[in-house]
Amino acid sequence: MKPIATDNYDFERLIKDGYAYVDKTDMLWKLANGKNGTLFFISRPRRFGKSLMLSTFKYLFQGRKDLFKGLKIEKKWDWSKTYPVIELNMRSETASDLAGLEKNLRGIARRIAKNYGLNVEWRDCGNSGKAFSLTLEAFAKKHGRFVLLIDEYDVPLQKFLQTGKIGAARAMLHDFYGGIKDNVGAIRFMMMTGVSKFTKLSVFSALNNLTDLTMDRPEFAGMLGYTRKEIETTLAPQLGAFAKKLKCTREEAMRQLLCWYDSYRFSPYSSVKVLNPVSVGQALPSGILTDYWSKTGIPTLIVERLQASGRMPSELKDVETTPGDLDVCDATDLPWIPLLYQSGYLTIKDVKWSDEDGRHVTGLVLGTPNREVRENLTSNFWRTVMHMEASSFDALVDVAKRQLAGGDVRGLLYSSLFGLYAALPPTWRVKNEAEAKRYFLLFMKMVGAKPQPEAPSLLGYADAIVETKKAVYVFEFKFNKSARAAIRQIREKGYADAYKGGRRPVTLIGINFSAKKRNIDEPVIESL
Q1: 212 and 282, same structural domain?
Q2: CB 263 within 8 Å of CB 368
Q3: Would the pLDDT of 277 be above 80?
Q4: Any idea what the CATH number is for the domain that residue 394 is in?
Q5: Which of 18, 177, 181, 498 is deepest in the core (most CB within 10 A)?
Q6: Are residues 123 and 66 in the same domain?
Q7: Residues 397-441: pLDDT tens digits?
Q8: 393: Cβ–Cβ under 8 A, 6 or more apart, which residues?
Q9: Cα(437)–Cα(486) distance, rounded to whole angstroms?
């Protein structure tokens, strides 16, 4: 059984070292054969295989037929034609100031010239864009048509987000990428990747002939990531071993895998959904279903934008938008919906079509893709909001989980929930009962409970009901009133009546949030 690579982005190493490879080369051939254009861009969330895709293109154009033996493209490709390949990994070009960014961009041109023995006169070139343009021109004169692969084009801008210098940095990259347009005639093929598109209008105006594969080309919706069919076929041995580790059937193992890592839909024009490949690659051999995404980066910017929007992670359902709103994210104000979508924290759940022809998309409904993303966003949300180290935060959650599982509702309320509200920063004012409940519901989900908000009864709706294997808890909130009044309401409205006579004990819990104390008063806890 072949291992699955999760930290190897080099196609040659992957094939020679005997790793499993999910064959996407039929889609790569459609792009590389020159019949559908030559300049391409695709945006996908981090850890979705963009770097491996670029590496595959490199060896394809270098004519490495030995690496493609048995793959879909082997008999379609003309292996007699090869092209020199220029690779730009923009992750290496970050800088903390504009002078550093300009130096790094000029350094790219100088490295290309040095590596390929080019004689370029930069003395009067003006800026990094002109230097890059002259270098590509010299490269084409010496080596002929070439392939250009640019990975993570947007990374150099990340240091300048939410600063007064983002406009200047964006203009600098605009000039740099403009060097590509000056040499389009010499480019046999180009693929540019990134996570976000918040710079597209300005940076990409220098490349207005790019074919954007991100959303509008449905035939490439599954090019990055694993489909369910690919896991059940190419990764069938690994799936079988995974099921044995979980001590369940293959069907149940697949169901759990889908629950944790599936449902990324990148095109409204295609129903294709994919799973996060790196998370699947770690879950299958380990037999452990958990949040692997958080280990690849803490989304501080994501949390800050979500916090500024007034939204909680649990409220990211049925988020309505349009394809146009998602296409460009303005780096100056960072709208939270396109930012979360492009980063992989929201995905397409439903599509609204025009009534006239049924072919024109008028709206999109977004939501969180899967359990991994929800847990990642929830935990990082609280860590950021409460300014807690990961270890301290995890310890608080672990204690609360044990309290809930052990039926220690008094400890859960008096220590954990009280500590949660106490840790909220002064800038986060709990202004009403609804906001107090939002924090409570998010906290309960975080500790493994499944609270039912606004649970109906004959005479009204309980604020929340939490059921465990051993007990039922009925919650009612008040704001600047009293916990005793909350208990009276539970009894008068019969919020717990549906659970009378059951085998599990039913506990009524009244909670009052005091704006003056900025925390809950002493809760009232009674048996039904």
Answers
A1: no
A2: no
A3: yes
A4: 3.40.1350
A5: 177
A6: yes
A7: 888 888 888 888 888 888 777 877 777 777 666 788 887 787 778
A8: 379, 382, 383, 386
A9: 13
Shared-domain flag, residues 299 and 286? no
- Cα separation, 231 vs 122, in Å, equals 51
- Same-domain check for residues 473 and 449: yes
By residue count, the chain amounts to 528
Same domain, 202 and 307: no
CA 364 – CA 388 distance, rounded (Å): 35
Shortest CA distance to 197 belongs to which of 215, 223, 220? 215
Looking at the structure of the chain, the number of domains it has is 4
Question: Do 251 and 306 sit in the same domain of this protein?
Answer: no
Cα–Cα distance for residue pair 429/415, rounded to 1 Å: 21
What whole-number distance in Å separates Cα of residue 230 and Cα of residue 44?
19
Query: Two tokens at 523?
Result: 């809760």
Q: Do the beta carbons of residue 37 and residue 46 sit within 8 Å?
A: no
- Quote the CA–CA distance of 232 and 240 in Å, as a whole number: 9
316's CB contacts (< 8 A; 6+ apart) are 340, 345, 346, 366, 367, 368, 377
DSSP-based three-state secondary structure for 457? strand
pLDDT tens digit sequence for 333-346? 678 898 899 889 99
Compute CA 328 distance to the chain's CA centroid, rounded to the nearest angstrom: 17
Residue 4 lies in a domain: no
For the chain, the straight-line distance linking the first and the last C-alpha, in angstroms and rounded, comes to: 56
Residue 473 belongs to what domain range? 386-527
CATH number at residue 93: 3.40.50.300
For residue 366, how many C-alpha atoms fall within 13 Å in the half-sphere facing its CB? 23
